[in-house]
């Protein structure tokens, strides 16, 4: 009966927050009368409840097997109370805790005061993806971003341009139309003094239409042979045709896509690694240690692969600079991944150094952008892509500043625990910056698909 008294007192406290009169907990090796300050913390209550469920009934029940009979309803009063206690324990065993209750390795942002998951089992962690806590939006912002880029990758692969048909008259006329007819006219004028029958030159108006028309309509004239012998070979139709044949390997096939797919792969790896890290890092210190390293490796991969499309497509006709820039950023990305494996790199006090390292990697992209503007200053696509790259840099930079400064939770601690804190804003800006870079890459592809080198 003493068990029931203790149990009734605890259940009364659990339901109302006020202990029943005279309730004591003396059978667990200590004697304690509930005091008003007990209302400030429920730790002792739940420890007591746990002990009662796990051990207190041993003196009340002869054999442990009879405990199942109690739960099956032989004594309705005991059964209902125990069932309710078990349900409460199972529910609140994985309750969200406050910052001060966290183990040291989980303390990262002192301005987020509550709604933490602390060392939960994996089953409960995976189920928590659908519940509300301070990591919910961190998980979903980058998980949605991952599926967005997965869709964009499939869409880009499905929309790859077909092989160009150089046998079509339309495409051939465009190629011939690029010939510099003014230079041809000047060369003809140089030859005029040596040509007989000057009045026949009036028939050369057909030249203004196309080289193809010239070759066809003047095929029977005797003056054609004289013109062919006078003009340099590069201005003849045969010369143009030869240039087309030599240049066709680069223009018949669509431009290579591997730099663009490398960027998409880096973005998906970064977003999925980040989402998984925020979901699983609360399980244990060891798993947190592993997941944070994967998370930082994903950030390095995103930054490094973001260079591949602009560098490759800008300098594809200048292999030396192309592979120089690609080599430098690849080495920097690998070095950043290795550096992130060091244990001290994960500590919260190194937050500024982590952000600075990733910022310097991104800022190194200024050099190839300036080089691009010098090399292709008259190319509209060069200016358009630079605009997208500036916008991308602003989004990434703003996200880094918010992440380091921990804005806005710094101003109102505890008010942004669930939604609106700095890491969530950082995630949104990363997805926006990566999407801006995707649009930028499409401009590069259209540019090189249409013009080649």
Briefly summarize what is shown.
It comes from Sphenostylis stenocarpa. This protein has 19 helices and no strands.
CATH class type of the largest domain: Mainly Alpha
- From the spread of the alpha carbons, the general shape counts as elongated
Question: What share of the residues does DSSP label as strand, in percent?
Answer: under 5%
Q: For the CA atoms, what is the radius of gyration? A: 37 Å
CATH superfamily membership of the largest domain: Rhodopsin 7-helix transmembrane proteins
Structural class: mainly alpha
Q: Could you please describe the fold and organization of this structure?
A:
The protein is mostly helical and 453 residues long. It has three domains: 2-93, no CATH class; 126-161 and 255-451, Up-down Bundle (Rhopdopsin 7-helix transmembrane proteins), CATH 1.20.1070; 169-252, no CATH class. It is 63% helix and 0% strand. It has helices at residues 2-16, 43-54, 66-72, 76-92, 122-127, 136-158, 169-177, 181-191, 211-217, 222-230, 237-252, 258-280, 285-306, 308-314, 319-340, 351-363, 366-375, 380-405, 422-451. The longest helix has 30 residues, at 422-451. It starts with a helix and ends with a helix. Residues 1-7, 15-43, 54-67, 163-172 and 248-252 have low confidence and may be disordered. GO terms for molecular function: metal ion binding; signaling receptor activity.
């Amino acid at each position: 009966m003493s068990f029931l008294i203790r149990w009734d007192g605890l259940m009364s406290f659990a339901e109302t927050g006020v202990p029943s009169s005279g309730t004591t907990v003396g059978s667990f090796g200590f004697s304690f009368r509930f005091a008003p300050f007990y209302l400030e913390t429920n730790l002792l209550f739940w420890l007591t409840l746990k002990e009662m469920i796990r051990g207190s009934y041993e003196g009340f029940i002869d054999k442990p097997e009879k405990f199942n009979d109690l739960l099956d309803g032989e004594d309705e009063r005991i059964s209902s109370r125990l069932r309710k206690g078990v349900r409460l324990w199972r529910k609140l065993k994985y309750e969200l805790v406050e910052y001060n209750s966290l183990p040291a390795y989980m303390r990262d942002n002192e301005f987020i005061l509550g709604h933490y998951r602390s060392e939960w089992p994996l089953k409960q962690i995976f189920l928590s993806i659908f519940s509300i806590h301070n990591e919910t939006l961190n998980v979903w912002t980058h998980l949605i971003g991952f599926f967005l880029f997965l869709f964009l990758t499939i869409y880009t692969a499905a929309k790859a341009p077909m092989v160009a048909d150089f046998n079509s008259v339309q495409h051939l006329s465009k190629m011939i139309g690029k010939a510099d007819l003014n230079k041809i006219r000047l060369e003809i004028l140089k030859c005029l003094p040596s040509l007989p029958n000057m009045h026949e030159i009036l028939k050369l108006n057909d030249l203004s239409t196309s080289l193809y028309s010239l070759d066809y309509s003047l095929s029977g004239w005797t003056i054609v042979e004289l013109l062919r012998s006078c003009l340099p070979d590069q201005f003849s139709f045969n010369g143009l045709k030869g240039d087309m044949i030599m240049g066709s390997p680069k223009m018949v096939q669509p431009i290579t896509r591997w730099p663009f797919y490398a960027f998409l792969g880096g973005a998906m790896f970064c977003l999925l690694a980040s989402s998984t890290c925020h979901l699983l890092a609360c399980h244990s210190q060891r798993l947190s240690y592993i997941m944070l390293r994967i998370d930082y490796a994903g950030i390095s991969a995103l930054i490094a692969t973001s260079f591949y499309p602009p560098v490759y497509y800008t300098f594809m006709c200048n292999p030396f600079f192309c592979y120089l820039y690609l080599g430098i950023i690849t080495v920097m990305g690998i070095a950043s991944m290795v550096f992130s494996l060091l244990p001290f790199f994960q500590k919260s006090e190194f937050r500024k150094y982590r952000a600075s390292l990733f910022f310097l990697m991104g800022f190194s992209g200024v050099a190839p952008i300036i080089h691009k503007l010098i090399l292709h200053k008259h190319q509209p696509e060069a200016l358009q892509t630079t605009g997208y790259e500036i916008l991308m840099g602003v989004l990434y930079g703003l996200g880094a500043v918010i992440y380091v400064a921990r804005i806005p939770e710094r101003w109102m601690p505890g008010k942004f625990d669930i939604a609106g804190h700095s890491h969530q804003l950082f995630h949104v800006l990363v997805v926006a910056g990566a999407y801006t870079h995707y649009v930028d890459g499409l401009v590069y592809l259209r540019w090189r698909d249409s013009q080649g080198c």
